[in-house]
Amino acid sequence: MAILEVSNLSKIFGQRHDRVRALNDLSFQVNAGEFVGIMGPSGAGKSTLLNILATIETPSTGKVNIAGNDLEALNERQQAAFRRDHLGFVFQDFNLLDDMTVTQNVLLPLTLQQELQPDRAERLQTVANHLNLTPILQAFPGELSMGQRQRVAAARAVITQPDLLLADEPTGSLDSLAATDFLNYLRQLNEKEKPRY
Questions:
Q1: Neighbouring C-beta atoms of residue 154, cutoff 10 Å
Q2: Cα–Cα distances in Å, from 79 out to 71, 75, 89, 167?
Q3: CATH for 144
Q4: Measured between alpha carbons, how far is 171 from 168 in angstroms, rounded to an integer?
Q5: Are 10 and 38 in contact (CB under 8 A)?
Q6: Alpha carbon distance 105, 61 (integer Å)
Q7: What is the separation of C-alpha 167 from the centre of its chain, rounded to a whole number of angstroms?
Q8: Which of 183, 171, 187, 169 is nearest to 51 (CA)?
Q9: PROSITE patterns in the record, alphabetically (predicted)?
Q10: Predicted TM-score (pTM) of this structure
Q11: Which of 25, 41, 92, 196 has the fewest CB neighbours in a 10 Å radius?
């Protein structure tokens, strides 16, 4: 079953003579449980594609459907709710809140959902175990290595059990060993959570 369907997607920046085509008639689908990497040189449109999938940018033409939701049909408020409820994000620069513990950072998306989650502690423990965070749950981001911070960011991204996890250069701030470890963590997480994301 396709969790993501992209049809004839194009994105053009600029006006008239200064136009830049970042994406050109792109079509593909990703099935639930697939682990997909997008590679290419700088300026190839990778971040533009991720921004469109994340409803941060709109395409010039084409359609995107995620988990049965036509992104074009959503207004701004619905897009914000869609991001909160259906997507998980891992960023290169982590975006952790320095004055919050690892536990508080990881649980933040559940707090933003403003719903009662009786299984919060269980979900936290499960994600912490998967990403080897249990020993550092009470630490603050400033006390962590880069690899630990990236795993905290991943835990925060998956705690809501999103339909789709998007990661924009998640290993860019890590050395090669930490990057390999982090990608292995994501791969293991994907295997354990199939067919969710």
A1: 26
A2: 8, 6, 15, 18
A3: 3.40.50.300
A4: 9
A5: no
A6: 36
A7: 4
A8: 169
A9: ABC_TRANSPORTER_2
A10: 0.80
A11: 41
Q: Are 125 and 134 in contact (CB under 8 A)?
A: yes
pLDDT grade for 30, boundaries at 50, 70 and 90 = very high
Interhelix angle 120-130/146-158, nearest 10 degrees: 140
d(CA 22, CA 175): 29
**CA torsion through residues 69, 75, 76, 80, sign:** negative
Residue 196: inside a domain: yes
Distance of alpha carbon 169 from alpha carbon 162, whole angstroms: 19
How far separated are the first and last CA of the chain, in Å rounded? Answer: 11
Asked if 9 and 50 count as a contact pair (C-beta separation under 8 A), the reply is no
* pLDDT tens-place string over residues 36-57: 989 888 888 999 999 999 999 9
Residue 107 and residue 96 in contact, taking contact as beta carbons nearer than 8 Å:
no
- In the chain, how many domains are there? 1
Counting DSSP H helices and E strands in the chain, the numbers are 6, 6
Q: Name the residue among 64, 4, 61, 59 with its Cα closest to residue 29.
A: 4
Identify whether the C-beta of residue 147 lies closer than 8 Å to the C-beta of residue 70. no
